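User: Need the bound-state model for calcium ion:
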Amino acid sequence: MPIHNADIAAAFNEIADRLEIEAANPFRVRAYRNAARMVGELGRSVRTMIEQGADLDALPGVGPDLAGKMREIVATGTCALLERLRKELPPAITELLAVPGIGPKRARALHHELDVQTVEQLHQAAQQGRIRTLPGFGPKTELQVLNATTAHLNPRQPQRFKRVVAEAVAESLLAWLRSVPGVLRAEAAGSLRRMRDTVGDLDLLVTVRKGSPVMERFVGYEDVHHVLAQGPTRASVVLKSGMQVDLRAVPGESFGAAWVYFTGSKAHNIALRRLAQDQGLKINEYGVYRGAEGEAERVAGETEASVYRAVGLSLIEPELREDRGELEAARHRRLPVLLQRANLQGDLHVHTRDSDGHDSIEAMAEAARAQGLAYIAITDHSRRLAVTHGLDPVRLAQQIDRIDRINERLQGFTVLKGIEVDILEDGTLDLPDSILQRLDLVVGAVHQRFDLTRARQTDRLLRAMGQRYFSILAHPTGRLIGEREPYEVDLLRVLRHARQRGCFVELNAQPARLDLDDQACQMAKAEGVLVSLNSDAHSVLDYDDLRHGVGQARRGWLEKADVLNTRPLAELRPLLARTM
Ligand code: DGT
Ligand code: CA
Ligand code: CA
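Assistant: Bound-state model below.
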């Protein structure tokens, strides 16, 4: 059975939940939670890493113990620790933890006192007023439980997956499909291909020789949990991770038309169809047709380019297909030349083991160079973020001196001196100008008080950008996909202030952040503010995340010139120099 990163993450999360219910050491619980998150966002298949003999200990936060567990899970689908924990507690009790407001302590109390084992039973107990009678559970908590369980039992929004997770699943599935007899071609479509930051389900296309068993094989894929539909040319399944996959087999001569159709977006398709109609053409997933029903002549369909050409357009890249002006731009041959990974010359947000990173300055520089970059900025956390071992002025001064010495040795690569300084609640910075002035750049970030009103949060950021040495606003909206909503802020005012002050905004490439999002990138471009596309790397492996940022930048219509760190160092330096 092929184990995906999502399976490992789920196992680690379940271990963390169960350890928490058993009141285990909180550090141990957190280690499993962090590992679950790290694996979930990894972007490389742990299974493949193991197959290729890669060193799992090199992954952030992973020691020999966790590495061993990952090997065990990849080999067997579970691990001895999880199985033991499952025997110790009724299987449904961890469900209780999924209810907001119910932590391990309360889950344990409900289980012991009321013999509640499922969310349904908890809901019932709340309805019957049995929860308010428990010590520590007044009527207010009971109402909370009632609301939470109602929402939990009637989920409104179907689950979406982070792109990095969906991509890993799609890649192994596509590779496997390509090995099925008679399969000529297998490709991803849908939101995954459009590089959306989250993916609802996977849409895959194949072309096959006659008689290929691809549909039978697909529904029998080892990771399939259940089959929703199966026919000769299409099938839908739900994988064990809960992810739905739609597969369609299309004729080779229609592949381009089908790829356009199933790549979407729906809004783009509708606009495209309307444009075709205006020219007396009909467009569907089989091709482009001219003439009346019955005697229609097919004029395009084998390639995507032929489809767009038939309606008078140049080929539109998948990232732009959102009906946000791309058809108009294609008609007037004014499509942007989208940013590419190879355009990036450096990375301006990088951590080391001086704060919460895993590797040395030298190792981060070497790894960046191996990724084709010419410079990085070391930007460890500042003292306010104590959990990260953030730098105070004395330690930062020492780091600055060390970087100077490292640069003397390096050739053809430069390490810039920076800091990820905390923006305090009042918009001042966590370190004084006397030390900030010694740096090449200052990356400012919000790490607490996400809850300020829109007006106060906006003022806070404007004030921070007004500080003399401020350079780049990191992860400007603070969102964590699927975990934390962006904070309330007037982004337009922030961008206009950035433009006026000559500072920059970040597109943070961590798969869970991708902050700014696509539309905000477009807004930055419109306001004339350069975007700094940074990995926020915490280990030598994390530069790989830059490609996620590039996908997001492309969705935001960004070209090479719109991105700060496509500049060679000689052009970058004057842009970073603060004269005010
Ligand atoms: P997702 O899965 O929610 O992340 O987003 P998509 O864009 O992958 O949407 P999905 O999976 O529902 O459909 C895949 C593509 O199929 C979609 O991007 C466009 C096409 N499509 C689906 N339904 C319709 C429809 O009703 N009309 C048209 N014109 N195209 C559709
Ligand atoms: Ca989809
Ligand atoms: Ca779909």
